[in-house]
């Protein structure tokens, strides 16, 4: 195993141009990749949504408030009574 690394080191020392070109190419590939990154700060984009939730989120975004937490409750259980709905 040591012989392999020694041979690789000797080849790299004797051939600096391919090493520098490889480093330059790798740097360019990483720079192009980094420039393609896009970030979003809207947590709602990551959540699965139904049509009703999409409308709620759209309305919430147009309100213009910041640092506010929106909680929505849906009671679709057959055991849920009107009294339970009214208490919410």
Account of the 3D structure:
This protein has helices at 2-14, 16-35, 51-63, 82-87. The protein has 88 residues and is an all-alpha fold. The chain has a domain at 2-34.
Q: Treating each run of at least 4 consecutive H or I residues as one helix, how many helices?
A: 4
Could you give the count of β-strands?
0
Order of helix and strand elements from N to C terminus: HHHH
Mean pLDDT: 79
**Structural class by sheet pairing and helices:** mainly alpha
Question: Helix content range of the residues, please?
Answer: 55-70%
Shape: elongated
Spans where pLDDT lies below 50 across 5 or more residues: none
Taking the alpha carbons of the first and last residues, their distance comes to 71 Å
What Rg is obtained from the alpha carbons, in whole angstroms? Answer: 29 Å
Largest sheet, strands/sense/barrel = none
Q: Tell me the strand percentage band.
A: under 5%
Secondary structure: elements and pairs:
Layout: H1 2-14, H2 16-35, H3 51-63, H4 82-87
Give a short summary of the structure.
With 88 residues, this protein is an all-alpha fold. The chain is 59% helix and 0% strand.
Give the tags.
59% helix, 88 residues
């Amino acid at each position: 195993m040591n012989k392999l690394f020694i041979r690789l080191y000797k080849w790299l020392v004797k051939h600096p141009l391919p090493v520098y070109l490889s480093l330059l190419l790798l740097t360019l590939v990483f720079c192009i990749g980094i420039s393609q990154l896009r970030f979003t700060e809207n947590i709602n984009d990551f959540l699965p949504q139904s049509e009703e939730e999409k409308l709620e989120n759209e309305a919430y975004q147009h309100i213009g408030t910041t640092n506010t937490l929106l909680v929505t409750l849906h009671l679709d259980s057959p055991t849920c009574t009107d009294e339970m709905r009214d208490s919410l």
